[in-house]
Design goal:
The complex is a heterodimer of chains A (131) and B (287).
Chain A: H1 18-31, H2 44-51, H3 55-67, E1 71-74, E2 78-81, H4 88-111, H5 116-130
Antiparallel strand pairs in A: 1-2
Chain B: E1 3-14, E2 17-28, E3 32-36, H1 43-50, E4 58-63, E5 66-68, H2 73-76, E6 79-82, H3 94-102, H4 110-119, H5 133-146, E7 151-155, H6 163-180, E8 183-187, H7 191-197, E9 200-205, E10 208-214, H8 215-221, E11 222-227, H9 229-235, E12 239-244, E13 250-255, H10 258-266, E14 272-275, H11 278-286
Parallel strand pairs in B: 3-8, 3-9, 6-7, 7-8
Antiparallel strand pairs in B: 1-2, 1-4, 4-5, 9-10, 11-13, 11-14, 12-13
Helix pairs in contact in B: 4-5
Classes of the chains: A mainly alpha (131), B alpha/beta (287).
């Protein structure tokens, strides 16, 4: 199956560049199971025309996803969702998904002038409370 | 020859009003570059000088390796241009205009011309003076794309189009970039369009290119940093803009390398660090 380019949407005027939005949306589509191993993502050409965005932006997003092991090049077909590797790969990938939230928390902690140790202790407590 | 457009020390004044002031700039092949600047910054003048339509007072310009203003016909045929507004040839119909221009070019893509005329609903047998502003602009774009130029200069090409029309035009442009690696120099004040299609942006201010960079990279590395004057100065960062706030703090907008990004973002409390969007960056750099 090839997912429709319209499954992706671009916000202009954001503090996140467009290639990053595409990377994050693809990750979420994979994480939520809307894209599964073997599914094809739109070609650079289709995506560029459908979203009216620069083809280099799309190539950049795809190469990053490829480097992360989420997409792989399928000869003659295009880019497809990779078969997830067991173990370390998926842990790193899942951690990567959490990173934006952590970065936001880090920034707000700094603005509130909270010492890092205090924040980490509080976060540990929250993590334990969840279990 | 990877520099498609090359300007060196270009100056242009109108009377006493200096518009371009020793401007040096290069545009690489295959890039889509947004040229931005405040009203009257000289975007149109820059494009018109590059095309050899305006004579420059100083400096040199090369387009596709050929010297301006003595561009050969062969080089001209590889360039396309959409002016900000065009009231020429009002007595001709769209079909007549296109037939007329076709004679000048060795290449002319009839199939594409017909498809675009239909898709964009440009009346073919009404005289141009009777067309709406948007229709004239669409026709002007079709005329510029018809000979499949390697280099396309667009001066506010979408100002007369509604959002759907703009979107369709930008899609067409991007398909062209994929198919033929067209180099596009795009001047506009509609930043949202530019953000979609431009890989690079160049900010024109005070007669020179103040900043030129990859748009993604600029958005990822530029920050607004606010703090007391001493802490800001202690950073030793070269700022793109600097502002004293009413409460006595200072805000700067700066492009940070990895080392500076890490150091300001881990500095507890003393500084407030915010990401900025393209529009804010535009305001800061062109202020």
């Amino acid at each position: 199956m090839t997912i429709d380019a319209r499954a992706f949407s671009i916000r202009v005027g954001a503090t996140e560049p467009i290639y990053r939005q595409l990377v994050d949306q693809t990750r979420r589509l994979i994480a939520s199971g809307q894209l599964t191993a073997g599914d094809l993502v739109p070609s650079v050409r289709d995506m560029a025309a459908a979203l009216a965005i620069n083809p280099m932006t799309i190539s950049k997003a795809y190469s990053q996803l490829k480097a992360e092991g989420l997409l792989s090049q399928r000869r003659g077909l295009g880019m497809a969702v990779a078969v997830p590797e067991a173990g370390a790969g998926t842990l790193a990938a899942r951690l990567e998904l959490l990173k934006p939230a952590l970065e936001r928390a880090a920034q707000e902690s700094a603005q509130l002038e909270l010492p890092p140790d205090t924040v980490i202790t509080a976060f540990k407590r929250i993590l334990k409370g969840r279990k | 020859m990877n520099d498609v457009v090359k300007l060196a020390g270009v100056s242009k004044a109108f009377g006493k009003h200096m518009v371009l002031n020793g401007l040096s700039w290069t545009v690489e092949r295959g890039k889509v570059i947004g040229l931005v600047g405040r009203n009257g910054a000289g975007k149109s003048t820059l494009l018109l000088c590059a095309l050899g339509i305006y004579e420059t007072d100083a400096g040199s310009i090369q387009m596709l390796g050929d010297r301006v203003p003595e561009l050969s016909d062969a080089t001209r045929a590889r360039i396309g241009y959409v002016p900000q507004s065009s009231d020429l040839f009002g007595w001709l119909t769209a079909d007549q205009l296109l037939d007329y221009f076709r004679a000048f070019y060795p290449r002319w893509n009839d199939v594409k011309v017909r498809a675009l005329l239909n898709r964009w609903g440009v009346p073919r047998d009404r005289v141009i003076s009777k067309l709406s502003g948007g229709e004239k602009q669409r026709l002007s774009i079709i005329r510029a794309l018809a000979h499949e130029p390697e280099l396309l200069l667009l001066d506010e090409p979408v100002s007369g189009l509604d959002p759907a029309g703009r979107r369709d035009f930008l899609s067409e442009l991007m398909s062209d970039v994929v198919d033929r690696e067209t180099t596009i120099l795009f001047s506009t004040h509609i930043l949202s369009d530019l953000e979609r299609v431009a890989a690079d942006v160049a900010f024109l201010k005070d007669g020179a290119i103040r900043l030129h960079g990859q748009l993604d990279e600029l958005i990822e590395t530029c920050r607004r940093i606010t703090g007391d004057k001493h802490s800001i100065d202690a950073l030793g960062i070269q700022a793109l803009s600097r502002e004293e706030n009413v409460n006595g703090t200072v805000s700067i907008v700066a492009r940070l390398d990895d080392r500076h990004l890490r150091s300001v973002e881990t500095r507890n409390g003393a500084l407030r660090v915010d990401r900025i969007a393209f529009e804010e960056l535009f305001e800061e750099v062109t202020r």
